[in-house]
Amino acid sequence: MIDPNILRTDPDRIRESQRRRGESVEVVDLLIAADIAKRSSAQEFDDLRNQQKVLGKQMGPLQGALKKATDDATKAQAQSEVDALMEQATILADAVKAADAHADEVARTADKLWLQISNLVNLDSPVGGEADFTILDVVGEPRDFTKEGFEPKDHLDIGEHLDAIDTVRGAKVSGSRFFYLKGIGAQLEFALLNLAMQQAVSNGFIPMITPAIVLPSAMEGTGFLGQAAENVYRLEEDDVYLVGTSEVPLAAYHSDEIIDVNQLPIRYAGWSSCFRREAGSYGKDTRGIIRVHQFDKVEMFVFTTPDQAEAEHQRLLQWERDFIEALEIPYRVIDVATGDLGSSASRKFDIEAWIPTQGAYREITSTSNTNEFQARRLKIRMRDGDKTSPLATLNGTLCAMPRIIVAIFENHQQADGSVRIPKALQPFLGGKTSFTPPA
RNA sequence: GGCGAGGUGGCGGAGCGGCCGAUCGCAGCCGCCUUGAAAGCGGCCGUGGGGAAACUCACCGGGGGUUCAAAUCCCUCCCUCGCCGCCA
């Protein structure tokens, strides 16, 4: 959620953000009304409760006096005082109960509306839908296969030729959009994991292996139960969720905590399986492993101060670029448009790798600045002197396995069907320089 | 899965149903003392909401209940620890 003060002092900023996202603007007005109602009903409850407490404080001594009374006159006197007080208290108790129930209800309404407000978009983000991104940079030269004299094969052909990817058996065992990484394929993933972790650690990240199942509070807190909910697997029986990214367990790791500002930034590199329902993507990327229900990913996640968030966002982007460049993959960087940010991000940069057989750049990493949005929901604060305030969280993909493997296979394939191994990866593959089919 | 014990402020650890947002110790902060430090002494020392402020309300694992009044009694769920069973 965003700073409630903005709602009270500058609601137009929120309206503008919602408008740029293509989301409800009316909800802002509903929320303003609900916010006022919430505060006034809470005030009513406070007052009544205060009266009840004041009354309650008189009750003890009075009953004590009643007990100690020896003669009938004082006893009767005390008794009548107790009775009168009790009568008042009973009436008040009902009023308190009613006010409490009302305040609760009103607060719930307001809270629910708050969850419908997405993070404030960064005003520098391009406005529009999925196609309205701006291109920030293009790096590397796509290979000219015509000039090289052969037709590039797609990653699945290559993967099958190398006996590295098996989607047929994936589908047999688990259904469509599941796959096996086998032999070279599995080794490649381990090599990528090690390269990614080595880079992350040298950049000050703490490696983390996270749970892949989380409670609703973690999902809610990271903002994945809004529009993104349809893509989340839920285990009904236990009321838990499979994470679509380790961003969720990493963000929630410090939930309900107050972190000393001197410890920031805290950087984690999380490794976990990721699960996505891919609802509403029927027919898209049905071939190969570009869009799958389960994959592994190394994710960078940072807790920092809000004033450092934008600079950190640039650093995350740079680290993503470093990794892609180490793998010698041509790519471009895009500034994602407001309509395609997701509810948590204020700004998002995607890196898209060149995929030769598609003649297109396809998303392989994504880094988001969520400012204080997730931290507010997850109650993660920082202590600066005697002040506590929400901190900022950011996330960025370091290495999403299937898509990186796709990019490596397609971009580094050779005419003879082998795949060249980029230098940076060779130390993690026993010094091997190319992938060839198993004997 | 079964039985037992327990969940209180950064940590430890109290808390007859009203005087408890909570005694005390440690850690931390400020001051005094000291050439400096330690010790000692004095003070401060949870989080959040509302309010300009005075002040006020909420929170003692979560939720519900009893009561005029709940950290304290009842129900329920969760978690931690111990033992047993089962499985890695």
From TrEMBL:
Keywords recorded for this protein, A-Z: Aminoacyl-tRNA synthetase, ATP-binding, Cytoplasm, Ligase, Nucleotide-binding, Protein biosynthesis
Domain Aminoacyl-transfer RNA synthetases class-II family profile: 154-422
Listed transmembrane segments: none
EC number: 6.1.1.11
Gene3D superfamilies given in the database record: Bira Bifunctional Protein, Domain 2, Serine-tRNA synthetase, tRNA binding domain
GO biological process: seryl-tRNA aminoacylation
GO molecular function: ATP binding; serine-tRNA ligase activity
Keyword Heme part of the UniProt annotation: no
InterPro entries: aa-tRNA-synt_IIb (IPR002314), aa-tRNA-synth_II (IPR006195), aa-tRNA-synth_II/BPL/LPL (IPR045864), Ser-tRNA-ligase_type_1 (IPR002317), Ser-tRNA-synth_1_N (IPR015866), SerRS_1_N_sf (IPR042103), SerRS_core (IPR033729), tRNA-bd_arm (IPR010978)
Protein's UniProt name: serine--tRNA ligase
Organism: freshwater metagenome
